[in-house]
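Action item from last meeting closed. Structure (463 res):
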């Protein structure tokens, strides 16, 4: 649809002014009534966080998202802007995106009086109506609200002229969504400057008698421990937010896997059972008494672990000349040392970090093995070792070498079916078969059905 270029043409289209919260409310209701996903890409919050967020937006509340690191608070903030209209009319050249029908800044009001229906109109995309600020201790009132612009004063305007004001981020987000990350890190005196924006919906700049109604939805994020450790949200500011919504880590393993699949950049084939191992390892760390629960274990841990596993498979593919890069169980332990920096351990666990993670990794593999292959007849594998055979594998052992050692094993086809290579799917590649075989061998070892020894970085089953 063509977009009008003047106020008169805009009025002829039947345009009506709406506040940003009304716009969000009406667009959210349209999505809810049509059955569309209001917040695409958000995993694990369907029955908990999202209903609270929808209620807060329908109520027109500014809100705080409260949760440990890596729970998707920033992603959630950014998806809210998708509920805005795709294009919005603004006064052309206005720094604060004034509504052409109801301008609020002195420059646009004067221009509207001079031009009338010929007031020039520009169009702003919804991506440009979302502004995000990381609350750092050096943030100033001028950054958020505004300050006197010495350049405008030097041009000849008097200090009493409101047009000498340089607007901060909040006024420049007028008619949009303003997200502020890690709000407790903002100095308390700076938090005070936000009082009027949240309650009276205006700003004050230095000594100016300036009332500028700001139309903005304010969304902030914070970690629970920030209230007592690094800083706090001062009580009067908390009181001005309409809603406080607690986020959480995924409750189900399937949700954790879906999140990793969505967010991780995997440059090799990582079978579903290995993603489940990574998901269970992450959940095990969150529940472990050796890990500081106040810090939490971010979803970024699982994402980085999956990417590391894929990278290990890609490295093997390049080093030994495999035709395809498919991750195997042996690739998971190789990434453990690179992930330790993402976990905060309790003080008494110093020096045991690797041991703790490796133990939880073994538990995760065993749980996945039981979940995926419970009740399956694996005697074909155990009989292989009863005859005195050994199978050697490792991160640089090609899939073809592993399969040649194992040979034809009764029951392997049923294992492949359980691991997602059954009817309706393409036949498994040698790399995928090798990944399944190694998963079974490791699972049998962890459930004490076959022996295993580690020699020079290689695993020897049946030794």
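Sequence:
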């Amino acid at each position: 649809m063509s977009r009008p270029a003047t106020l008169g043409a805009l009025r002829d289209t039947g345009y009506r002014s709406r506040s940003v919260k009304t716009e969000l409310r009406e667009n959210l209701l349209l999505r809810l009534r049509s059955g569309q996903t209001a917040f695409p890409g958000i995993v694990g919050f369907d029955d908990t966080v999202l209903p609270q967020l929808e209620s807060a937006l329908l109520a027109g509340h500014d809100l705080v998202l409260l949760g440990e690191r890596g729970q998707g608070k920033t992603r959630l903030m950014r998806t809210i802007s998708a509920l805005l209209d795709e294009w919005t009319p603004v006064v052309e050249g206005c720094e604060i995106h004034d509504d052409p029908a109801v301008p609020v800044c002195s420059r646009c009001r004067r221009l509207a009086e001079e031009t009338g229906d010929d007031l020039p109109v520009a169009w702003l995309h919804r991506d440009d109506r979302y502004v995000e600020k990381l609350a750092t201790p050096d943030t100033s009132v001028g950054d958020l609200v505004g300050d006197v612009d010495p350049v405008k004063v030097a041009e000849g305007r008097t200090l009493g002229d409101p047009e000498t004001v340089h607007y901060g981020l909040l006024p420049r987000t007028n008619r949009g969504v303003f997200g502020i990350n890690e709000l407790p890190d903002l100095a308390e005196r700076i938090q005070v400057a936000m009082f009027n924006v949240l309650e009276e919906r205006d700003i004050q700049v230095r000594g100016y008698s300036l009332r500028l109604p700001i139309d903005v939805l304010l969304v902030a994020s914070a970690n629970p421990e920030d209230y007592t450790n690094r800083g706090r949200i001062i009580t009067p500011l908390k009181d001005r937010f309409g809603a406080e919504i607690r986020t959480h880590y995924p409750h189900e393993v399937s949700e954790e896997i879906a999140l990793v699949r969505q967010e991780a950049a995997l440059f090799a084939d990582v079978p579903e059972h290995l993603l489940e191992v990574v998901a269970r390892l992450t959940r095990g760390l969150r529940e472990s008494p050796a890990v500081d629960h106040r810090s939490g274990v971010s979803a970024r841990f699982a994402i980085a672990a999956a990417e590391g596993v894929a990278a290990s498979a890609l490295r093997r593919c390049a080093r030994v000349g495999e035709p395809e890069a498919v991750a195997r169980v042996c690739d998971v332990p190789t990434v453990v040392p690179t992930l330790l920096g993402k976990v905060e351990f309790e003080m008494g666990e110093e020096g045991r970090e690797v041991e703790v993670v490796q133990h939880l990794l073994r538990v995760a593999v065993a749980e996945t093995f039981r979940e995926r292959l419970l009740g399956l007849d694996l005697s074909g594998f155990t009989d292989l070792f009863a005859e005195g055979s050994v199978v050697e594998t490792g991160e640089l052992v090609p899939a073809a070498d592993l399969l040649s050692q194992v040979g034809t094993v009764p029951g392997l086809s049923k294992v492949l079916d359980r691991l997602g290579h059954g009817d309706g799917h393409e036949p498994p590649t040698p790399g995928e078969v090798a990944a399944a075989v190694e998963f079974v061998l490791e699972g049998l070892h962890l459930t004490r059905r076959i022996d295993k020894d580690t020699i020079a970085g290689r695993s020897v089953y049946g030794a």
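Note appended to the action item: The two ends are 73 Å apart (CA to CA).
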